[in-house]
Structures
1.
Amino acid sequence: MNVNEVPQDERDLKHDGRINKLMYAVDKDGKYTGINSAGWEAENFALEQAWEDIDEALVKVEAQVKAGALSPIVYFMQKNLMDIALLANYSGKWQWQVKRHFKPSVFKSLSPEMLGKYARIFNVTVDELVNFGKDKGKS
């Protein structure tokens, strides 16, 4: 693609007035150069749909956590766009062990060290992890 052909659909890839995507294109001398791009319509539409699907899934998982059907680990795993294999790898556990931690009863019995490991993986505090989905007004 030539420098003058870099897509510039500004709907989604701007933040605070700055373009946040770097693309490489051929300049007038035939050399590759970095060019800022605001994306293109088809790409932005696909990304928008994908993020809407992710947000819908998060709302459903959050409701299941609040209902006591799943542990907060499932929510944070999905929020961080992880799957069980990746989370198992980061946590140093087998996949079946991570799946067990999805059960609220097992989650409640996790050691402080394991909770700390999950909190670091998800970039939250242990308190945020343990108390996720709980009403703040209740004791």
2.
Amino acid sequence: MPLQQKTKQEIIKEFQVEEGDTGSPEVQIGLLSHRIAALVEHLKQHAHDLHSRRGLLSMLAKRRRLIFFLEKVDKKRSQDITKRVGLKN
């Protein structure tokens, strides 16, 4: 389910590294985390929705790869984003 434009802009503003930044790993991780949280809530009510579960697993893997990439590039930024999103290190 796509994010509403207003919600997406708020998330981008929260996680952007500099003004006008829409594609940095931090922004991508923030957007994915929001979508993951919404999908988890959906799956709590609809436990047998296997197609959505597969999409959730795909999003989790993509977020994990982005965090690993960021960890290679800059360990401090990686730790900062994991704390802001609410993941454990």
